[in-house]
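Input sequence (293 aa), recorded before submission:
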Amino acid sequence: MSEPREHKFFETNGVRLHCVVQGKGKLMILLHGFPEFWYSWRHQIPVMAKYFNVVAPDMRGYNESEKPEGVENYRLNILVEDIMGLIKAFGEKEAIIVGHDWGAIVAWTFAMTHPEATEKLIIMNVPHPQVWQEKAKYIARQLQKSWYVFFFQTEKVPENYFSKNNFLAMKLMLSNSTFKKGVFSEKDLEKFVEAWSKPGALTAGINYYRANIRPEIFMEDIDLKFPKITSPTLVIWGEEDLALTLDISKGAEKYVDAPYTIKYIPNCGHWVQNEEPELVNKYILEFLEEYTK
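Predicted structure, token format:
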């Protein structure tokens, strides 16, 4: 039997992060995306806690974590150091890094920036940054799917739109972008509304886009070079993602100088760990088999 789930706070990189912690063993950090919080991993935490010391933070700006004002406080390099600080807070030098959506962007970047601290890397439904740079502006369908990136750059407009009618648009974004219906229950959506309602939380989540994704990437010839990933990497990808084309999931193996595996899940959308939790858990545990024996 694993340890009971605990809610703890940690000071890291100048902010106070709320984390859900459960289990013992190798440190595993679960990084959620927009517009979620630690609850995104509710189906993974108890399963992984049988084998690992699982830590699921509310990312900077979300739910119970601190919400510094200003777009500049949500740049990727700062988000990465938040995670490095968490690893140190647990007295560890490395961790298994798992990320979905914005959490996956942070996870990719963390593995590039801190290869020595990335034991294994697990990514869900976010392309490698080099692949995104190469393909995003050349795939017409991806341009259509990325409309929200432009919308999020406007000041206050997204916040006003999403917060109307008790966050109706946000709830519909979650519910209607899954391939299967009923993935998010009314109880789940109530928990999300509670998290979104916290002062500054909605702006902080949108600031991830404002701070790090420039719309010009779709128009200009930008050629950034990213360090190769040197950690064993697993990518899990729901094939029916409404925000990302299937093509943009391909090609990351060129930028991973380590064992690389990608698992596609048909009839599954962007919220892969919520839509197919048992299959996601199975793929993670198979990838980490050496720790579970």
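Checked by second reader. The first helix runs from residue 45 to 48.
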